[in-house]
């Protein structure tokens, strides 16, 4: 029987997710090395989920963390992000979004919001 916590993904995304892990943007690198990797809750970087790749994913809490750079701030990208969020929520996942600027300039507040989300019952 399949584990209901597992989210299927497209196998072709595996190599892309590896490349993204090797070369993360500065905000993702900061969040991973200064906060997420040392949490007791296990997070995965650049996790394929369905037809998308999430920046960070905690399967135990079904929590996706997305860090949005400049490419997300236009109409086509907003539409794409909306479809992506709807698909992930349909799978029972919770999504937290932050901008690069929030991670780099308001790091403690970003971390507190993630801790609060992890403390909430799923």
Description:
- The chain is an alpha+beta fold.
- It has a single domain, classed as VSR Endonuclease (Endonuclease, Chain A).
- It is built from five helices and four strands.
- A four-stranded mixed β-sheet has the order 1-2-3-4, sandwiched between helices.
- The radius of gyration is 14 Å and the shape is globular.
- 23% of the residues are buried.
- The mean pLDDT is 86.
Uncertain runs are none
Which architecture name does CATH use? 3-Layer(aba) Sandwich
Compute the CA-based radius of gyration: 14 Å
**What is the approximate shape?**
globular
Largest beta sheet, briefly? 4 strands, mixed
CATH level-3 fold name: Endonuclease, Chain A
Terminus-to-terminus distance: 22 Å
- Order of the strands making up the biggest sheet: 1-2-3-4
Instruction: Indicate the CATH class.
Output: Alpha Beta
Q: Please, how many helices?
A: 5
